[in-house]
Each structure stands twice: as structure tokens, then as C-alpha cells.
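Hi team,

Filling in the usual template for the complex we talked about on Friday. All components are listed, including any nucleic acid strands or ligand strings, so the model treats them as one assembly.

SUBMITTER: L.P.
PURPOSE: interface mapping
COMPONENTS: two
RESIDUES: 760
SEQUENCES:
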Amino acid sequence: MTATGTTVYVAGIGCVGGFGAGIDAFRAALKQGCCSPTPLLQQHPDGQPFVPAYLAQTDKLSDFVPKRALRRLDHYARLALLGGYLALADAGLSAQDCEDLGVIIASGYGATGTTFGFLDSILNDGDSCASPTSFSTSVHNVAAAYLSMQMQALGPNLTVSCFEQSMTAALHNALCWLQSGRVRRVLVGGVDEHNPVVNYCYGRFFGTQTAAVLSPFSEQHSALPGEGAAFLLLTTERPGLSPVRLTDVASGSGVPTMAAPTDVVLAGADGHGATAPFYRRLSGETPALRSCTPCYGSLPTGQAFDLAAATLMLRDRCCYGLCAAPQTNEAGSCPAPQRISVVKYSGDGSYGHVRLQLEEGSRHA
Amino acid sequence: MAELVCITGIGCLCAAGNGLDEVVNTIFAGQRRAASPRAFTTSHPQPYPVFAVEEGWDVEPEDADLLKTSRLGLAAMRQALDQAGWSVSDLRGLRVGVCMGTTVGCAMNNEAFYAGYRSGATPDMQPIRRFLASNPAEVIHRRLGVSGPCQTIVNACSSGTDAIGLGSQWLQAGLCDVVLAGGADELCRTTYNGFASLQISASELCRPFSVDRCGLNLGEGAAVLVLEKRSLRSDKSVQGLVRGYGSGTDGWHLTAPHPEGRGLRQALTEAFRTSGIQPSQLSFINAHGTGTRENDRAESLVLRECLPNIPFHTTKGYTGHTLGAAGAIEAALTLAFLLRQQMPASAGFGTPDPELAMTPTRVVTPFEGNLALSQSLAFGGNNAALILQRGERCL
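RESULT (copied from the run log):
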């Protein structure tokens, strides 16, 4: 467990996903407990012709970046930029405040669209006609690079990729940077984009009969792919209202040790059969186990959305998401949380565990 | 950096050899083991030479189902642990972190699978399973069965340098007792075609910092350093120390360095500040030195203005550009040169470029002193620098 010696606050959150873009859209989906996936044409004869996926739109990015500057940006970079700008806006910051801002991006798969686009250029036209634009925008650190270029965020800049544990890994570094005084503020975000090839892999690995809805605590495989970006703006400076603190980051295997009492455990249970047993074990340990995955789908960096959801729950003094125990999904059955643990498992049983806490004595926003 | 970060083991393999001693001997012998790619075919009219790891290094059958990138990382890890004297069972009682840099190791770019998918066939899923099982840091973490942070850094060509720097920060923050940090990358068709498409691959052996430099040669390999606090085993011999780490951001262009080297200056400033070391204390600099027009121009400008009169060289003429492994391999080599108190000639350097006004070492050069700097520049505007100290005089 990495207890933060320095007090670290979540000053802003920004997210874009199948639910829409921004806090209000995310909150609406969280209150509903889910959002509807989009039927997506499967571009391959194997399996069913349409498969559902939680797809994100990035139109709102033009609120922050001139349309001319967006012309050459691919979907992955747009997701990252929109999530990042929304987090800055939520924190009351503008691009002019970014000169010393650190940036850490977590991504499970990186820019898959441009990666396969680059392979298309080779397969279509031969090795000598490979697309330089696709290659240069397919590198894993492209999202962090665009954030630094657009925002002129010139602090330390890092991209990590560890599949489901990517977001926990990113937070480990963010805490190190803040505690050592390397940065005052750091923008930490999870970004993954959907791609037809990913859908195809889902079908091959998990069967072509997809579930109609994502059921986080079902014993049946029900994962539906999602995409998007969710960002936290972390700082050592205390925000004015409802300050949410990031108190612990830990990784390990088995059942996480809850070093201090927690009111809610937000599980990254995203319908994958391989991780379901681990979340079921967690359910046995923790009565207040909830999940928000039906709001954003299954993606390696889903933990970033859970952290945004937990921040909203603490700010709003309200429980969102589906509870593992169905009877406690009734209105008013969950007291206002003060401390939330966010847990994400990988298929091998390793976990990332992050704790957020509403600062005592804080006033409602 | 307040807490001493000791390096107790170094593993390294690349085209120049399997094991740090062999690599260093090859370099000081002036050998450049480049050839046309053997692991894959290409249809370029003229092949671009690459620096491939020679066969015979890959002896563990249990690793067979992993990507070559991860197997290279495991091989370097075993060398490093052997030198450090750590058994796996001893490590399992400690908080051991793993931090590895890569590019290819995290890229879902298997061309055969994708070609099959695209054609409407039902491709074998083994390449995807292999990709999902081969995250370079996770492979080492899983193989050792250790607990502690586990991260794969994908900062393009500065990944290996950043991985060592971040691993040092974990030790100093008290997150770990030991960190295995480094980088690994393999040659692959995708990156080969990618660099060719950007027109920065050389069709002959690279000539970093020369007036007639014409691009880079790709390479492959891995290096892993065992980092630990001095207090952990005070009786253990120490190969070196990580004295400082810094990183900086260009915020400029995806594939071209900032013309004034903005991010590199920032990385150097932080590395010197965190180490408390003055530039004049350095014995030499291991430059990134890819041999591309733009990299060498920006890098030499920064060297000229920020670190004047300090001898420098580049080792990419011996190893090729190993991308996510480069920073780690070059850190390992920097330590080896410090221990040997000699720096090699910069392979491929010929006629000085008047625009650069900087000349790397042309011959094997002895030096006195214990400190050196290794720096990396990367796509995306990432820059990173490590200040390393020779080990034997520090305790």
C-alpha cells in the first residue's frame, strides 16, 4: 500500500465515453446505473453481423481546440484531449495554467486505429508505400504528446501500458511526482479506443453470442467493449469545496488489504469471466460492493472511469452504480460515502487498489 | 536524489553481444555487426541494415510462447540478477518493483493476424494471445513472483531511460526494496517499415554527427539494472549509482525534436538539480546520437550550449537504435565505460558537420573521474537523462 505522505487532492475530473462527454453526462448515466451500447457493424464474416459496444463521440472537443487544429487528430488522440480538457475545466484551470503541468497517460492497447491503419497502408500498397502519418500517430505516447503540444503542458510527460493495471501504475508515478515536489499538478488519465479488430477478438475469445447488457456481478460472461478517456487532475493544493483526497494506491494479488475502513468498494467488474471469481471473493469480504461498468463498458483502463465515478460519489454524497447485493440498489439504501476503494482485477488475479476520501469537515459543493 | 540508488547487477544483450562484457569488448574492438534483416522479408528496393541479436541467446524453453521482446527482457534480467547475487526466493521476501521500457512490446501489430482478419479469413489467435501474455514488465514480475509496482513505460525511444529513472524514484519514495529496471525491444517489420516511411532509415551504416549522416539503423536488445538502496546489503559490491534523473517535454512535434532542444534542456536541468552534480564533474556523455539530421542537430546544439567541452560519443553505431531498449542499453554501457575508465570511438563518425560544431570521440579515450551522463530523445517530444556514477569508489 502506498499511503500518500503528502496530501493529494483530486481537483478535477474529465471523462468521455459511451455515456457522452463531461461530468453531467457521466452523472446521469451513473444515476441510471447504465447506458445503452451502440450496435456496431462487425466487419468480418465470423460471428453475428452487429455487436454492441459503448462508443464515444468527441464533438465537444471543438469547445476547447480550434477545428483546424483537430483535422489531423485521430480518434484516440481526440479522446485523450477531450478527457484532459474536461478535467482542466472541472478544476477551474485553463490552458494558460499548464506550463508546469505533468501528464501521465495510461493505456491498455494504445492507438489501435492508427496501428491497424498503418498495417493497411503496407498491405494495400507494399512496404515502400507505408504511411508515415499513420506510423507517427500510432506510437503509444501519441496521446501524451498531443496533450503536451495542445495545452503546452511542459512538465514531465509519461505513458504507461500494463493492460488492466495501467491506471494504478500511472497513479503510482503521479504520487511519487507530487510527493517529491517534482510537480504541483499532474493530469492522469486512462485512454483506450474501440476498434473492430478488438471486437473480433472478443468474439473469438468469448463466443460470438454477445450479451445484451453488461452485468458486472453475473457469473456469465457479459463483457461488452467500451472506449473513452477519464482523467483526474491531481494536486497538492487544496480545492475549495468538497475536497476529495487520493489517500492510497496499491497493487498486489488476491484480496486487497483495506488498511482503513471504507464505505464503498467500487469494483471494476466488467463482465469478464476470467476476473469474475476475484470480484465474487471481494463481494464476500465487502457488503458495499458496487460497480459502474454498465455506464462505460469493458476496456483496460476502465479503472479511470471508476475513479471519476468515485470522485463524483464523494462530491455528491451519494452512491451510484449497481450494487452486488440487489436489495441495496433501492433508493436511500446506501448512506453518503466518505471513503471509497476502487479495485480493478486482471485475469491473473493481480489487482490495483486506489482509495479516495472526502476530507472531513468539508462543505457540500 | 537524496537516497543513494545502487546498481548491483547489469544485464545486457544486443547485436554487439550477449552479456555486458561481450558487448563492451565488441565495441572496443570497433566491430559493427549490422546486416540485412533475417527475421523478416521486405520489398524495399534496397534493404536497410539492422543490428540483430545473434542466435544462441534464447535458451529457456519456458519462454518460448512469449514475444521476443519479453524474452530479451527476461534474458537481461537473468544476467542482472546473477551479477547482483539475488535468488528468486530471496526476492520474494522483499518489495520488488519492475519497470521496463519498450515500444514493440506493447504494440498490437501482428501483421499476419491482421492480414488474415482483413481478408475475411479466420486467423489463428495465437499472435493475440502472445501479445496479451507478453507485456515486458508483467512477464518479469510474473516470472519472479514478486510483489511491488509493475509498469511498462512506453515513452517511445526514451522509455528505457525513463524506466530506470522512475525505478530510482520508487526506491527513494520508499515504495520498493529492489527495482529491476530497463528496457527491451525486438526488430519487427512494422517499425522497420515505419522508420523507412519517415525517410529516416539509412540504407548503409549510420554516421551519427557526421556531415553526411543519412539516418539511423534499427537494432534490438535489452538491458536490465538491479537497483537497490545501499542500506539493503551494505556488504554487496556495487557496479554503480543512479545519481540523477530528469525528463523534459518538447510540446512541439510528434516526430521531430524541438529545434532548440527545449525538452532536453529541461531534462538535463532536472537531472543536475536532483543529483547536486555540476556539469563540469562529468567525464563524458553518452549521447542519443541516432544519425538522423534533425536529432543530431538539436542534440548537438544542447550539448554545445549546456555541456560544453565535455567529451561525448554515441554507441548506436554498434548497437543500432534499439528504441524502447536504447536508454537502458546505453545506461548499462555508460556504467561499463565508467568502470573501465575508457570511452569508445563513436562508430561511423567521419567528417565533422560545421553546422553542429561538435565532434564526438573518434578513438578509444581514457579518462579519469566517476560520473557520466546518458540521454535519450524520443518521438512525442519526450526527453530523459540519467547521471550515473561508477560504483567501486562510492562505498
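MY TAKE: The mean pLDDT of chain A is 91. Residues 42 and 130 of chain A are 26 Å apart (CA to CA).

Thanks, L.
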